[in-house]
Known about the structure:
Elements (H helix, E strand, L loop, with lengths): L11 H8 L7 E2 L11 H9 L13 H11 L6 E5 H13 L3 E6 L4 H9 L2 E6 L10 H6 L7 E5 L11 H13 L3 E5 L9 H4 L11 E6 L11 E5 L3 H10 L7 H11 L2 H23 L4 E3 L6 E6 L6 H9 L3 E2 L1 E2 L10 E5 L3 H17 L4
Parallel strand pairs: 1-11, 3-4, 3-5, 5-6, 6-7
Antiparallel strand pairs: 2-8, 7-8, 9-10, 10-13, 12-13
Helix pairs in contact: 3-10, 4-5, 4-9, 11-13
Amino acid sequence: MGKKPEFHGSDLEKIAEYYHISPKGIVMFGANVNPLGLSVPVKEKLAANLDVISSYPDRGYTSLKEAICAYCGASPSHIAVGNGSTELISLLIGQRQAKKAVIVGPTYSEYVRELQLTGGEMVEYCLKECDDFLLDVEDFLSSMPAHTDLVILCNPNNPTSSAICTGDIERILSSCKERGIFVMIDETYVEFAPDVAEITAVPLVSSYDNVMVIRGVSKFFAAPGLRFGYGITGNEALLKEISARQNPWSLSSIGAYAGELMLKDSDYILRTRELICAERDKMYSALAEIPGIRAYRPYGNFILVRLLKEGLTSFQVFEAAIKERMMIRDCSSFKSLDGEYIRFCIMMPEDNERLLQCIQKTVYSFTIL
Length: 369
């Protein structure tokens, strides 16, 4: 029997080749990208101003930082911009050179890859299924190993879509500050949350110098190819070190211009939040009515589901969906996620309905031979 293939959220071409199907028309439920696509006004303005690529970007990205400030309430002096959130994650981890890092998982694999490059020890604190993958802050803080010097959180977390409230984040930051621990918080999905203010750590940056919040435009603004990310920290020494390590003009002139347009596009931001919030609630309620599965309350634009029917695997549900030209995420590649889980993001209403029907049909029809 051949080894089961492993696919990730954006492996469209790899999946199309494996199943001998055209990638055209496949609905990408695995990539967690805003289904509205790139904003039409942003596209029009970009097309009309392509000549910005004939000039170097402002080395200090002054105008862009002011737009970020207006968008999320951070001080321009606390902001670093980069070539996607991935670059800033790499720069931060490389700068910290952690001897012992604690990662709250299951989560995004890029953190581990970057930590491996620094040669430090890694410890994973596993969110518990019995707690609906919500962080038990008291247990987390009391179980943190001695000599920990870096904590990595994704909030809302991928793939669980669970979140930590701002009050609990402050408890973590306060405790970590006392112990000399720096905290990196990846807020890639925070703008999709039902109430951003309830979970974002940005307001805490001015009070705690042991934290950096990292965001980007890949998911919420449907622009993964733009490679624009930004980090927010009140730690001046860290900002200087990141600047010293970063290549000059790390973010292109077109990236800086487009990023500024996106953050100011209030109509697109509102339409996105209305769509995701309405469809997420509808899908979560519908999933709760399907026997044989369990959905966990989502804060991101995606939902984690556990398959409870004996013998039914995440790969079987993945294949059932891909045969109907819908690509979800088989979560078996996430370490420490014991059991059979699938994850899928919120797409347009008609596509969401098709996926719900596919899941329901697959679960209902499955029998062990």
